[in-house]
Amino acid sequence: MPQLRIAAAQVNSRVGDLAGNADLIVAWTRKAAEQGAHLVVFPEMCLTGYPVEDLALRESFAAASKRALEDLAVRLADAGCGSVAAYVGYLDADSVGPRNAAAVLYEGAVVATQFKHHLPNYGVFDERRYYKPGTELDIVQLHGLEVGMVICEDIWQDGGPVAALGQAGVDLVVSPNASPYERNKDDQRLPLVARRAAEAGAPLVYVNLIGGQDELVFDGDSMVVSVDGTLLTRAPQFVEHLTVLDMDLPGTAPRTEGQFGEFLVRRISLSSAPVPSYQPLPPPPVAEPLPEEAEVWFALVTGLRDYVHKNGFRSVTFGMSGGIDSAVVAALAADALGGSAIYGVSMPSTYSSSHSKDDAADLARRIGAHYSVQPIADMVDVFVRQLGLTGLAEENVQARCRGVTLMGLSNQHGHLVLATGNKTELAVGYSTIYGDAVGGFAPIKDVPKTLVWQLARWRNAEAEKRGEIPPIPENSITKPPSAELRPGQLDTDSLPDYELLDDILDDYVEGDRGYSDLLAQGFSAEVIDKVLRMVDLAEYKRRQYPPGTKITLKAFGRDRRLPITSAWREG
Amino acid sequence: MPQLRIAAAQVNSRVGDLAGNADLIVAWTRKAAEQGAHLVVFPEMCLTGYPVEDLALRESFAAASKRALEDLAVRLADAGCGSVAAYVGYLDADSVGPRNAAAVLYEGAVVATQFKHHLPNYGVFDERRYYKPGTELDIVQLHGLEVGMVICEDIWQDGGPVAALGQAGVDLVVSPNASPYERNKDDQRLPLVARRAAEAGAPLVYVNLIGGQDELVFDGDSMVVSVDGTLLTRAPQFVEHLTVLDMDLPGTAPRTEGQFGEFLVRRISLSSAPVPSYQPLPPPPVAEPLPEEAEVWFALVTGLRDYVHKNGFRSVTFGMSGGIDSAVVAALAADALGGSAIYGVSMPSTYSSSHSKDDAADLARRIGAHYSVQPIADMVDVFVRQLGLTGLAEENVQARCRGVTLMGLSNQHGHLVLATGNKTELAVGYSTIYGDAVGGFAPIKDVPKTLVWQLARWRNAEAEKRGEIPPIPENSITKPPSAELRPGQLDTDSLPDYELLDDILDDYVEGDRGYSDLLAQGFSAEVIDKVLRMVDLAEYKRRQYPPGTKITLKAFGRDRRLPITSAWREG
Fold it and tell me: Which residues form the CN hydrolase domain (chains A, B) (predicted)?
């Protein structure tokens, strides 16, 4: 059977950086060429980064993307990689409108282009705002083999372009993707890719982006699946990776052209002679998907690292309170940026316990962070006395003096401020706007409180396994959580127990269940009333919160779009 | 020719308030009935409010909307209005998905329902995320006349359901709308409605919502246009209004049913006998569209008033600096809420000029606002000394101490904080995050600086015409703008002249022009570079800004969706 050596380049591109992404594509195509690959597949819109949002509507950006693609074809040939067919996603635009496109670059030219057909417009996706769908499929003949292409969402839909490719006849299908990470999503991808391979009657090369972009993080999980659904190789998650795989392909696909359903199939021949028979490489490994906590941890580390670096920051600062949230943020930041990039600040008030200060200092020592203490008593005192603040107003002013302190240090020293709130807090509005909610990025914004504890235990256990110092002080994990804004305050004064709270939130927010469903699940009417009311009233606060890496289906900010002004109450 | 008395109920409904909106519909149907109307048309999704955003995806909300519609039909009959055919927009959901729907309520029952076909998914609209399109058209026979219905976007598209109604045969078309205000949009509506009336071969009753909902404000501008394009009546903008109009309709429409293009037309007969001939009412007036500044002013007043009241606040507070922005916000708030609902706070720093304090006090007197002075020197001093802040960090800490002061007073006294920044500032990032950007609502967020001055002059002139005290001190209008964060500081130290700046922003933001277009317009490369860089870098700040009434095509926050992390630079 004819042979083909294929390469899947799972890379981290950067939105808007046409020059940098072109360099990246040249570098990885060169690696593929060095390993003798005949084709290399890059992720969806690799040349522009993904998602470009309203940049898609800027004519000047689309024109620059098209120019960059043509220049790239020439550069690849100049770099001696012209004979490797490179599949590169980019932004196109024609008289119909902007297009989510991918092209084949070969021997210094753009030899084929194809536009995405299925445009997702749910959850994190708004592609129907931006792109017009394509209905033409360019099947490229390479070394006598017929190679079809489909972009991302086109493999998530039954029927559609994959079925048309199958009817027209292909020996191989390649698919550039930008599929954001979500907990347990990899469980869905493999069966999906296998189903499409069967539909196409050909193996499928699935290549996904890695890296963070604003609230999204891409996990890679690139793979090749045979026509019978066998997983031939899978790349490790959250790292750049080149997979090179030798395939024996039947090469018996018919070469029909013309209309297949709504799709017009065209054939483009690059080379009709099969490659001379050669000794195949040993098969590449099949990476195991990461275990649950590890996967979430690396998603958060990747999202944080790329947000900081891609926005040009080198260091971060945040309040180290001694509590679990700031401890987990610190451990994530240490893994993402290194301890020396962290400037932790303890900002005790008159209500702060001594164990808080001790735990914060202990944390900083464990991760090797810079650490300073800035008591807020003097600042708070001026506001409280001058404005006559009491009760909640007095509690909030403490959090806000901390916010002003961090922002002042950020302005003075150039650190990015991290907000340390978790998803549970955000859901119920248990945070102070312009106080603990200040910052440019919120690493655990989409992590429910119970998962924060779980991650802390997992990360410490990993350190112990490796004979390293566990980053998180045991006391931060075990002590009862408190905002310490008044004497003896505990979270449980205002909130239900976190296990119960997270269960209700999972049903109400992630599951979109109504009041009567929640009652039927056995929650008490009183606690449902209380929690739902808090969630509904906190919409404004959530909108003002910094972005943070999305790991659940319904991350606040990215997916959920609710009116602020709304009289709707469940029940 | 058969007669029909039609009523257009231009009302202000509230998102999520099914009970309150049902009361509103009963009250206005009763008014229509008292005036002898045979049918009354309410705006799009009047029963749920518009837009409901992700509430559309909650099964419990859709179920409650359907129940409320059925209850409403019964209540209307109980109130003695059963014989008035009421066209009521609501949220439906069936096995296909959620539907943007409108129903005809008659004699205690829901007698017809129709789903919107064209689902807008651009600008402020995300309807393809939420709704499935409908392709069935229910034409209702009322007093022997054939009445068709189309919902909002269905009249903005050539062809589509209006053409199908025209082919099938109708005597009248009614159209419930939720069409947000935008400067000069009324110039587009009349020709559009006229074109659709011609396409339908029947007069068209266009009914639009009024009122504010988060960042959107609806202006009404409801109208009736005859088949030959004559404007028969138009309601005044930004007020609730019932238009009652007697029409002589030919009643000669064929009664064909079945498939017309992609639409299935059905006929439902409520009453086949024409109404006995009666003496028509005198024709209602045709309201003139408001002049340019008045229209913007009322849009801003309406947006602010409804945001405050629909969120349950009674009073507002904000910094009165003596500058033009806070003066215009104060005048808007006085018109929206009354002077006694305003708690202005002067927060002088050591750099504040004496004219600033005088102008602020003068403003408060003119509009009858509460007024207090809270110097920030002591607060600023603690932060600056303890943290060692200099330069920009010191400037920002002043703005942030003002932010903490306003939020403290808000927490203590329950006022909503208004942010007083304008669109030009927001565009270039000339504001302090967590400082002057704090607040629940930003009334002039979408008003460019040059328009702020223009509105100030217009409002003062209006007051003079009416023999009232102009609300805005002349000195606030004429003095050169300054943030007063360091000695002798002027906005022009950091920014181009505002006339020039607004011109560039209009091209770059509203017009989406690229670098070379801007050069071709005659702007200098240096100023383009500077402005575009400021705009691109301020995306994060803009996202953290409070919501504010949208009056332009590309309001920040509502329409423009750009990545924060982006390396793209024009030029």
Answer: 4-249
User: Is the CB of B53 less than 8 angstroms away from the CB of A562?
Assistant: yes
Size of interface A-B (CB pairs under 8 A): 220
pTM: 0.96
Residue numbers in A near B393 (CB within 8 A): 408, 411-412
A393 contact residues in B (CB cutoff 8 A): 408, 411-412
Instruction: State phi, psi for A389 to the nearest 5 degrees.
Output: -90, 140
Interchain contact, B61 vs A568, CB within 8 Å: yes
Peptide bond into A51 cis (omega under 30): yes
Range B250-277 burial, b when 16+ CB lie within 10 A, else e: ebebeeeeeebeebbbebeebbeeebee
Tally helices (H) and strands (E) across chain A. 18, 20
Compute the distance between CA of residue B51 and CA of residue B117 in angstroms, rounded to an integer.
17
Whether B3-123+130-274 shares its CATH topology with B294-543 is answered no
Asked whether A10 and A224 are in contact (CB, 8 A), the reply is no
- Domain-wise residue ranges, chain A: 3-123+130-274, 294-543
The torsion angle over the Cα atoms of residues A371, A377, A382 and A386, rounded to 10 degrees, is: 140
Residue in B433, B565, B429, B563 with CA at minimum distance from that of residue A309: B565
How many Cβ atoms sit within 10 Å of the Cβ of residue B396?
25
Strand B342-346 and strand B316-319: the pairing is: parallel
Omega prior to A120 cis, within 30 of 0: no
Nearest CA in chain B to A130: B122
The Cα of A456 is separated from the nearest Cα of chain B by a number of Å equal to 28
Burial tier of A476 (Cβ tally within 10 Å: 0-12, 13-18, 19+):
buried
Beta bridge partners of B106: B109
Pick the CATH number of A294-543 from 3.20.20.100, 3.10.330.20, 3.40.50.620, 3.30.70.2120: 3.40.50.620
CATH code for the structural domain at B3-123+130-274: 3.60.110.10
Cα–Cα distance, A224 to A216 (Å, whole number):
24
Assign A370 to helix, strand or coil.
Answer: strand
CB A491 within 8 A of CB A482: yes
Determine the Cα–Cα distance for residues B186 and A114; give it in Å rounded to an integer.
Answer: 41
**CA B5, CA A293: separation in Å to the nearest integer?**
67
Structure tokens at B277: 């001939």
Cα distance between residue A295 and residue A510, in whole Å: 19
Looking at chain A, which residue has its C-alpha nearest residue B403?
A: A434
Tens of each residue's pLDDT in chain B, 571 residues: 899 999 999 999 999 999 999 999 999 999 999 999 999 999 999 999 999 999 999 999 999 999 999 999 999 999 999 999 999 999 999 999 999 999 999 999 999 999 999 999 999 999 999 999 999 999 999 999 999 999 988 888 888 899 999 999 999 999 999 999 999 776 789 999 999 999 999 999 999 999 999 999 999 999 999 999 999 999 999 999 999 999 999 899 999 999 999 999 999 999 999 999 999 999 999 999 999 999 999 999 999 999 999 999 999 999 999 999 999 999 999 999 999 999 999 999 988 888 888 999 999 999 999 999 999 999 999 999 999 999 999 999 999 999 999 999 999 999 999 999 999 999 999 999 999 999 999 999 999 999 999 999 999 999 999 999 999 999 999 999 988 888 888 988 889 999 999 999 999 999 999 999 999 999 999 999 999 999 999 999 999 999 999 999 899 877 778 899 999 988 7
- C-alpha of A479 from chain center: 32
Q: Which residues contact A47 (CB under 8 A, 6 or more apart)?
A: A13, A18, A21, A22, A25, A65, A68, A69, A72, A88, A89, A90, A91
